[in-house]
Amino acid sequence: MNEPKQPRRLNTSAANHSGSAPRPAAPAGQRKINRSGAAPQRPAQSAAPGQRTAPRGAYRAPAPAGHPAQGGSHAAPRRKKKNHTLRNVLVSLLCLFAVVAVGLFGLYRWVVNSISPEGGAPTINQLINTPNEFKGDVVNILVCGIDYEEGRAYSNDASSNDGMTDMIMYVSFDVKNKKMNMLQIPRDVYVGTDYNTGGTGKINAVALKNNGMESLTQLIYDQYKLPVDYYVTIDMQSLKEIVDLFGGIEVYIPQTIEYNGSKLEQGLRNLDGASAEFFVRNRKSYAQGDIARLDMQRYFYQGLFKRIRTATVWDLAKLAPVALNYVTTDIPIDELISIGVSFLKVDSADIMLCKVPTFGAAQKYNDQYSILVCDVGKTTTLLNDYFRTYGGPVESLDVPTLTTVGASTDPNVQYMGQLDTQTEGGQPEG
Q1: Are 92 and 140 in the same domain?
Q2: Tens of pLDDT along 224-247?
Q3: DSSP output for 64-118
Q4: Residue 399 lies in a domain
Q5: What is the rounded distance in angstroms from the CA atom of residue 251 to the CA atom of residue 267?
Q6: Domain containing 108: what range?
Q7: Which one, of 276, 279, 278, 281, lies nearest residue 248 by Cα?
């Protein structure tokens, strides 16, 4: 992978000038202008006998000391001055708010433009997008977490994890009905020989060994019959920074986890960046390895989504450097804003998570790599029920298979609301 893009500098020179020349000083002898912008009026002459007095609101000469002013109390001008002061303060605050809002929006646009692919054009084949008749009703996004080894660069070594998509999630957002379904795809799923996998046979090497995300999105469409509109890639190195910038994230740990000197006790915990990384990455302490890890990661998603919903503008501003260095997407800025606003309206009870069913016993590929074989029958039913509600069901998938051993895993359909309920009884601990 290319080195992380350097943040583009903002041109702040225009922000320090109003765009107009300062107002010249008034010539000597010219009447002064009061705070309201009007020239002071001359005192009214005393009314002659039989002449009408000055109307209410007209200027009156100050009363002699010790005598009340004619037509009213001397406190009236003071109230007018106070109102002017209050008005000026409010106007100043509104102007300050407007400047901050415009500045933040400009910063947001800059960040979003910076995380777009170089060249600015989407790389996904439009033939695999959501059909036009459903545009606006549903948007389908492939989200991938890319795992890099030390050095953070792509490697040609097939045994290396440099640049592999070890977290793959297909997100179908039903904007019309305010629902979201998320499909976890195990990183070790067998993809056959149509794509170069560096001899591993695994889906996590497709983007690395072929044409990046364009190849992976095409595979999702070809084998799983799932349309893809956009993609998002996240460097897994950013996980620690994101969590720490949020000041930690409350995550429910369903069971005590211990591996290689690290340990997390069961219960609701406030995880810092390092603890969150251990929780999300750990798989070797589970008998089912990556399959069990997918189930555990859902608790982190639940905690993260809950934290995002309570995030302030300043929280999001702090994440800007992380987005610049670790996130890439081809979602246009207007679409990204629309998706974000719509997502905040989705109830957690309408966010579903599931995973591709695979046969439990891992198999060896090329005599050295452990792979998982998709249960095509179960997966077809799962996708028709939850992910092809707009395009219509399909009879079968084109996912390659091998001779399998043992029973297949359960898709484990869960809703975010269920996870919320599971965590409500606990209190965050250290």
Answers
A1: no
A2: 999 999 999 998 888 899 999 999
A3: PTTSPPTTS-THHHHHHHHHHHHHHHHHHHHHHHHHHHHHHHHHHHHHHHHTSPT
A4: yes
A5: 8
A6: 76-114
A7: 276
